[in-house]
Amino acid sequence: MSTATAKHHDDHGHDSHGHPTGLMRWVKSTNHKDIGTMYLWFAFTMFLFAGAMAMGIRAELFQPGLQFFQPQVFNQLTTLHGLIMIFGAIMPAFVGFANWQVPLMIGAPDMAFPRLNNMSFWLLIPAALLLVTSIFVPGGAVAGGWTMYPPLAIQGGLSMDMSIFALHILGVSSIVGSINIITTIFNMRAPGMTLMKMPMFVWTWLITAYLLIAAMPVLAGALTMMITDRHFGTHFFNAAGGGDPVLFQHVFWFFGHPEVYIMILPAFGILSTIIPTFARKPLFGYTSMVYATTAIAVLSFVVWAHHMFTTGMPVAGQLFFMYSTMLISVPTGVKVFNWVATMWKGSITFETPMLFAVAVVFLFTIGGLSGLVLAILPVDIQLQDTYYVVAHFHYVLFSGAAMSIMGGVYYWIPKWTGHMYDETLGKWHFWLTTIAFNVTFFPMHFTGLAGMPRRIPDYSQQFAEFNMISSYGAFVLGLSQLLFLYVVIKCIKGGAKASASPWEGAHGLEWTVPSPAPFHTFETPPVVK
Amino acid sequence: MRQSTKNYYLPAPSFWPAIAATALFLMFGGFAMALNQIGLGKPVMIAGGLVFVYLLRGWFSEVIKESISKVYNTQVDHSFRWGMGWFIFSEVMFFFGFFGALFYARNVSLHWLADAQLLWPGFVATWPSAGPKLVLEGHMAPWGLPAINTLLLLTSGATLTWAHWGLMKNNRNQLTIGLVLTIALGVAFLTLQAHEYAEAAFTIKSGIYGATFYMLTGFHGLHVTMGAIMLTIILLRVRSGHFDAHNHFGFEAVAWYWHFVDVVWLFLFIFVYWL
Lengths: 529, 275
Hints:
- The complex is a heterodimer of chains A (about 525) and B (about 280).
- By secondary structure, chain A is mainly alpha-helical.
- In chain A, about 65% of the residues lie in helices and about 0% in strands.
- In chain A, helix 7 (about 160-185) packs antiparallel against helix 8.
- The longest helix of chain A is centred in the N-terminal third of the chain and has 36 residues, at about 70-105.
- Chain A starts with about 20 loop residues before the first helix and ends in a 36-residue tail after the last helix.
- Chain B folds into two domains: about 1-70, Helix Hairpins (Orthogonal Bundle); about 75-275, Up-down Bundle (Four Helix Bundle (Hemerythrin (Met), subunit A)), CATH 1.20.120.
- Chain B has seven helices and no strands.
- The N and C termini of chain B lie far apart (about 55 Å).
- The interface between A and B is large, with 80 and 69 residues.
């Protein structure tokens, strides 16, 4: 890890240097901090929106029978909840972190391509508009699940086309954004910051950006084949013409599994930043962490068919994908052990970011272990498309990715706003979120093992108690995020002044600039020793 | 510009990104409507296309102006190199998806369809195939037009490199002639490709063979078209006296792109036409 011995020669009051104010400051921005802020707010808005949909889902599932939504509407809710959470909330939030933190952490004056950076953000808006307005078109929003498998997806109406094009645009945004991030990391590091001195967060984003550039074009290809099958008479996914619906699943999951790591590697980077700070010890096994991240990235491209064990693959294929999937737990285990070892004998304090980080290590491991269970072929055939899968991926995506994002916000918000957040309310937010999350999703392991299918608005009487518990949890979980919103707004408006380095154990270049970080930083690169 | 060439060039606030978002919204939104027979679709799509052309022209002019006024230092030049390299990698992955689909259909799913014998008894897996329910009327043989096209594109790669040598030796004549030749060869390729499409006995609707054939060659042709347009712009810039022996990444970026399109064609020739 680099030590923050750098001097910075900046902040001669560039802030008002002919820069537009008001709305145009944001529309025309070429500043990584402003763009990062826009990404984070966009993600938060989408998070609340898709979270409200999840509460609709849980309201319907509160009791057996149909209460609020017709099955078609229920399917639209689950589909849009998934699409928006993944592409609208988690991914943009991480890009927001990358925008704010990568230049600050490597001592760069900005991103390598500031205008393209802004384009990556503004492309999210048309994509979100297409996705959200598709709810109101005839036939309603997409209802075939976020994975959009044919033949169901071939039969959808206008909203299916809108969603496909929304994903095309999001793909362009992600690819351009990732090219920017990779270029920034390779080309804009301060003198002396070698690759193996880079902060772990920067490393994880480097690998994530690589995954995005490799995976998103393949998704674009799959979606393009979908469009031509729908409207131009091709037979990619139609066996009558020699195609195969399973082909879509292969191409989709070739993108989809790296996507899973795209959503968790930056979270690993955030954990690897927070834990050493509050354990007051350097990150244990930095080098092994770098190699583990790289190994995960490589392996993520050869495990995709574990999402398709029940499609009738040859046994040899099933075995290969089972073993390769289990292999991923090795580098992931390295990471978990490294975090635990970092905390070992540290003088730990539990401020809100650390609470989130420790909870993520614990809860993500549960999600990782249920993933290992699902990787086992005979077990997966039993559990495919049950609530066990829903429990699994919410443990990795909510208590892995989303809670890391929350921890990261608490950790860096003093740098972003210049104020400390309200520690008491932060802790309330943490405990409410963590407890409500487990109340919501832990029972799903049981309902899933007992055979309750996902994506169905009604269920057998035997699942009633667990579903009611899940729904109570989900309402608390959803409403607690309004507290998060309040804490963030309160912190922006005021609060105790944050010093340049408000965390006692924090290291890194971002803590050498004042809080809030000036509009321009590191215009002359610092020297890292 | 307050930045000196010593510092990394940071552009002033810009409207182009928001215009790009508008263009894509109109194009894709209009396209989605047009696909569903909504009357407004086509005009919206065309409007989006016009905004897109305006965007490309405006944004690239701005970058070219910056490049000429020497605000880019070596580090910015390196950024462009990294950026173009990774962009081409993303394009490689785009084609990889379609090649993967071709491989899967030919070597996996067609055989399973034939082996199962449940839905379509008597179906035999051959290639080319339009599947059990459709009839394939002929296919493309490699050693006619496609072979000539291969030759054309490979030659265009050579003429482009020759043009690059001219640029590095400050021989502007060689540079111009090389570029003109490259563009001519590209246009010749596209003409032959259009002829091949017009003469073809099968369409994109002709089962999995027609689908993979037209998808792969169609996207390749689109890339050749874009490459030819980019080369034409480079030619116009050369005529206006842009670029010198040391400072010509715009030229190199297009050359990289052209060579990439070349390599994709080789794979197409082998896997789509030949084997």
